[in-house]
User: What shape does this take?
Amino acid sequence: MNSNRMSVEALKTSIEKGAVFILDTRPADNFMQGFIPGSISVGDNSKFDKWVVETIAEAEVVIISKAGGEEETINRFLPVFPAIEWKVLEGGFEAWQKASYPLDMIIEVEADELALDLPHDPNLQVIDLRGEEEFEEAHVTRAQHIPLAELVDLATIANFDEDQQLYLHCGGGQRSVLAASLIKKQGVHNLRVVAGGFEAIKREKAIPITQKQDHSGLQK
Assistant: This one.
């Protein structure tokens, strides 16, 4: 394994060439406040590491971690795919930020903001990223169900209308930030993440919820 360290200048050049895959392992809250454009958020939880790494098509992979945590992060990914030549950004995200290179961010909204916008914005589309069973049990009425795994298919992202205002949510939070980063990587930026996911949404009485019905036709 070759854990080469890459300078911010070298990373900027690789991004401009379009041949780099960037994994950002900082916590989701930090990622949303600012990240290198095109980065994929995998957070500090390794639950989705294997799934994300399997989507990598580019030859060059660079990891963004907290400064000083580069080797620890390499050791996190090495068992998943030992054949990949993992690289780390020297100085982490802070070095990129200090160089004043471009940044992107993800807007987070509270469930009560979704409740206010939902009746008045005809272009608003709720995207539910949870699994099939979670969605069937209960979901926002007229939400579009797109399980996280389907976002690997670029055709799914291409189907979003440029006029749509996408409100993404999962069960609690991590999947929605990962999904938002995947969508933004493909150039779709008209999106927001609902804080607290469906757990927060279902506490908002103003948001219409469709629930699974039992055999008697009654809602559970």
Q: What stands out?
A: The domain at 107-211 is CATH 3.40.250.10 (Oxidized Rhodanese; domain 1). DSSP finds ten helices and twelve strands in the chain. The first strand starts at residue 4 and ends at 6.
